[in-house]
Amino acid sequence: MNSPAPRRLVALLALAGALSLPAWSAPVAPQPGAVSTEAGQLAIRHEKFKLANGFEVILVEDHRLPLVAFNLWVHAGPRNEAQGQTGFAHLFEHLMFAGSRHIPRGEFDKYIDAAGGTDANGSTNFDRTNYFFTLPSNQLALGLWLKADMLGWMIDEVDSVSLANQQDVVRNERRQSYENRPYGVADEAMYQALYPAGHPYRASVIGSHADIQSIQLKDVKDFARTYYRPNNATLVLAGDFDPKAAKALLQKYFGTLKAGPKPPEVHVAMPEITKERRVVVTDRVELSRLTLAWHTPPMFKAGDAELDVAAHVLGGGKASRLYGLLVRDKQLAQSVEVGQGSQSLSSVFEIEVVARPGASLDEIEALVDAEVARLAAEPPTEAEVAQARATIETQLLQRMEKVASLADLVNHYNQMADDPGFVGQDLARYAKLKPADVSATVAQWLQKDRRVAVIAKPGEQVLPPEVPTPPAPTQVGKGEREALNAAEPWRAKPPAAAKAKALALPAAQSFTLANGLTVIHSPKPGLPLVSASLVLRAGQAANPARHPGLAGFVAAMLPEGTTTRSAQQIAEGLAALGATLNAQAGSEEVRIDFSGRKAAAREGLALLADVALHPAFGTTEIERQKAQRLAALAQQREQAPVLASAIGNRVVFGDGHPLAENALGTGASIQAIDVAALRSFWQAHYRPEQAALVVAGDLTEAELRALVEPLFGAWKVEGTAPPETRLPPPRPIGARTVVVDKPGAPQTALAVVAPGPLASTPDVAPLKVMNAALGGLFTSRINNQLREVKGYTYGIYSGYTLGRERGQFGIRGSVRTDVTGAALADMWKEIEGIRATPMGAAELNRVRNAQLLSLPGLFDTNLAVVAGYAGNWSSGLPLSAITDLPKQYGAVTPATALKAAQQHLDPAQLIVVAVGDKAKVLPQLDAIGRKAEVRDADGRPVAPSAGQ
């Protein structure tokens, strides 16, 4: 997301002061939504029309929640870029947040915060650029005012200063997303091998450093004149609004925008490969990777659906052929991913296999080739096709659960299929295809001589020569600004909010089974979807000292077989339901999560109960899981942000603390785990009286009770519960700065960490409001200074992890290597500043409202509701902790926020972990007075080398 540095806050202060806080009511009856599932047919009720200037609008009236999603698509992406201007469309996305004539630089995102906005961002893919946010429904006028100013008057404020700043930001994004991310350069190499020079898909969406830096202000203005006009954009409004009132506001805010010329059409032939192209890329990775890619038919064209199903059959999860063969049976692969990447000009079918240490890529490739050839020669089974259909339908339903993703789906169908309501026809493509159609399409398109093979191997990363960053201009040049639309002085004043509706956060009730299992239920009628989580206090904190990583190992083993089902049968059962089931251990709890359609709830919860209550802990699966976790340990070493967080835990909690060790454990501890250790831990900690089943979705209490009693009522306690032990207090290391060497890294990954308060602390609300101002929001002090003012980073954020017995504060993000020291110095100024003086009225109102008014948008899916109640149960909080949030946030004052900062944010306790190029980082740290201790990738001290 992109937003510029602040200029003035006068209008924002007026808006924040004028906001009327909503009343908070008891739960209300469900309201009608836009999605219909009558007779098993999915449909989206909508209305589409155009203003006189060609601006296209789609209204999706949906009253499930008092929210409105604003989703603007500009029909321009890399497919519209001129040669030599790769990354232009994406850079323009960033510039769209750089202020406009009536919204001064830096205030756009602050308006969103102050109004309680959620899901605010922008994104670019090869075919389009979108801009979106969701607001409370009483802010319909504000949202349209913001969107209209972005589209109509953004170009008025773009100048050499704002352009240079966003060029810095985008280049930092490139470093983070490609050059400092494992396999990023291999992903880029794949597209360069697939597409010839001059094809708009050849370069990555983000573009090259050289092209990004070479973009001139004139290019920006030309692009705006051509593409950022009302006749080349579509706005979807989805949510709780009155269509008549919305139409009047749309005419008011968008009707006077001048139409532009018709954008030039894009006609590009699909490239044809007649001989296999092979590319070898070396990168700073631990595990080798094979990628096979083919050109395939464009989105929604003949063959697209068939290849989507083929992707599910080959690699669409644990039930797929390649996962079963390469990961489960032969144990050659760490992961398998297969997908049909559908796009407008041509699609890409991609098979990606990450090899286990020591595995042969040649052997892997031969096995993949054999499976593709088998699918081309023999149709998949009816069951495999049915699994793909079920998964696709469930995923579509889940996209419609949030008004934000529903709006984006409608815009997607509108551009790509010329029909906003295409969802029924979309599903019909899959319903009518036959297994033989899948094999025939695979035979036609996935031929060996028509593909690209990219081999990524550990080695030196080879990048183009560094493109220097010229000194940033400090003043706007004469004549740099111009206007596409006439000035309209009335637009300078933001519209007032309408009266807020009475709101209710999703409440929950609980009941307890005879065996002590707590069941927490939050009904959410509407879409036929259900999510559930079995949560137990059996996380990393429960690990025995001799078995670090044991809690995570036990959780990972649950879906790998029960006393009556094999791992393959579990995977196939979930695939047939189109559902997901995952088990994962956190620091204090383990969660087994299920999500799927209501029709799958009975069988899905039965699978959840089976894996939790009857794990087999088979010897073969244990050995396979050992290899999987050892490889995952190796992968962590190549991911600088993950490594920084892991080392951060070690230095904060101290050696010997259960939370100091890597959640995966150590190489030695993984090898030492056996069936006895796994079963002993499971018997001690997987107990009904120490667990809660949290369920949200389209189930009544009666329906839930009828499901739960037969499945979990017979859960018997085995043995005596272990005595409750308390976590020891953290024992942070003495050093204040730790460096982990990553030679040649273009960025330094930072984790600035310290012990923090527990979830039971009475000042949680002031603490979260204070943190929102410091580093929790995009508009926070730290992110604004380091990204928008200085251009040091793509993004950097702070947050508190509040647990039952564990608390931690952290600031995390990556900065350009050459400004590591300067970034930390700026960070410390912001930390000291928030502890020194109370926030002013404008800032407090904005960040408090960002927490308070956004609450309905933060609990708008079953998964979000389940996560909230499961997390609170694990932390020892009552059910009312969620429904009490409005009152608690509303009571925060400048004084209470300041007190929270002074009590829970001590700069003297903060430990800096920097994962980056030691040779370049250490001198910078010395220059700002931070003596660093060097540690290895396991967090152990490294003896100084000669001359250090």
From TrEMBL:
Give all residue intervals belonging to the Peptidase M16 N-terminal domain.
Answer: 57-173, 525-639
Identify its protein family.
Belongs to the peptidase M16 family.
Keyword Signal: yes or no? yes
The residues the entry assigns to the signal sequence are 1-25
Coiled-coil ranges per UniProt: none
Q: Does the keyword section mention Signal?
A: yes
Question: Which keywords does UniProt give here?
Answer: Signal
Which positions fall inside the Peptidase M16 C-terminal domain?
Answer: 214-390, 673-850
Q: What is this protein called?
A: Insulinase family protein
